[in-house]
Amino acid sequence: MTALAPHLSAFLREHLPRERGASQHTIASYAHCYRLLLTFAAEQRKTQPSRLSLEDLDASLICAFLDHLEADRANSARSRNARLAAIHSLFRFLEYRVPSCLDQARRIHAIPMKRSVQPLVSHLTKVEMQALLAAPDPNTASGLRDLAMLHLAFAAGLRVSELVGLRLDQFDDATMPSLHVIGKGRRERILPLWQETAGMLRRWIAVRPTGVLSQDDPQLFLNAAGRRMTRSGFAYILRKHAAVAAKTEPSIAGKRVSPHVLRHSCAMHTLHATGDVRKVSLWLGHASVQTTEMYLRADPTEKLEALTALDPPKLQPGRFTVPDKLMAMLTETSNAPNYAE
Q: What are the boundaries of each domain within the chain?
């Protein structure tokens, strides 16, 4: 039996950061997946997670784990596929370190991704976005922080990891205020900011805590304890203010307002303003314009030109005739299954 713990530790602490150059967000996401997997496997094998062997993670257990994600944890097919991708990555690493698991790894690699419906992106309208930005109280330090985060998440179209990972030196408060963003795949981009957004950042920085915990912390946004804001912390803040905004704009209550919805909202508003999907792609930091095309599917105005270029079909007027009830009954009976005589 091959102990799993040393190889899993080497994968997360050495292979991903050093050889693959993965970001801390990617490593954290993979670690969360393996924590779920080992918890499930330990329950199935009736042992402790630290005592699991590599052979315990066979293809049948992986399939049971994926079913558990969808049935018990209510994960979507996309989340299920993301977990499976992390497992595939681990076993590609193990193939070279433990050649004896080659057949086991091939069986796991053969587990297919699940096809899923690609829904239209959800976003907030201009009125809904204004109601959300009016929710925080600007007379308190926490309200200024929340307002600055909401402004920045929408105006810059930031991913939640990019937002909570911002440092003070990434905000350039010059003649043209701008933000230096290090995005997914270590792609960097410079984004100019509205004067209103830059003003909210200045107001927050002026009241930003400077206590013992925060004086040496370079992070732009801090929580109530003076430590770096987390992804879950911002998600909680967003849900709280969305509930307040729903009182003045009830349509918000029917939407799931997540941090990524603010990014979608920025993309849709930018597309409406420019009509150029390439500019939206550059603004969001997408690696390919193909990723940005999902906003075109959600925007009906982009299809109006095609609609107006086509002539509607000419329909011939007809006259409706009421069917004979007796003949309809005979037709229905004749099409029914044969009965025994």
A: 5-109, 126-302
What's at 226, amino acid-wise?
Answer: G
What pLDDT digit, counting tens, does each position of 290-310 carry? 888 888 888 777 676 666 776
Helix H or strand E segment including 178: strand 178-182
Average pLDDT of the segment spanning 188-197: 92
- The catalytic residue positions are 159, 184, 260, 263, 286, 295
DSSP string, 284-339: HT-S-HHHHTHHHHH-GGGGHHHHHHSPPPPPPP----PPPHHHHHHHHHHTSPP-
pTM: 0.74
Other Cβ atoms less than 10 A from the Cβ of 231: the count is: 16
**Is residue 115 within 8 Å of 78, Cβ to Cβ?**
no
Mapped onto helix, strand or coil, the DSSP state of residue 8 is helix
Distance (Å, rounded) from C-alpha 52 to C-alpha 42? 7
| 126-302 CATH, one of 3.40.50.300, 3.40.1360.10, 1.10.443.10, 3.40.50.2000 | 1.10.443.10
Lowest-pLDDT range of 107-116, 274-283, 293-302? 293-302
Task: Report yes or no: 187 and 164 within 8 Å, Cβ to Cβ.
Answer: no
Whether residue 313 is predicted with pLDDT greater than 70 in this model: the reply is: yes
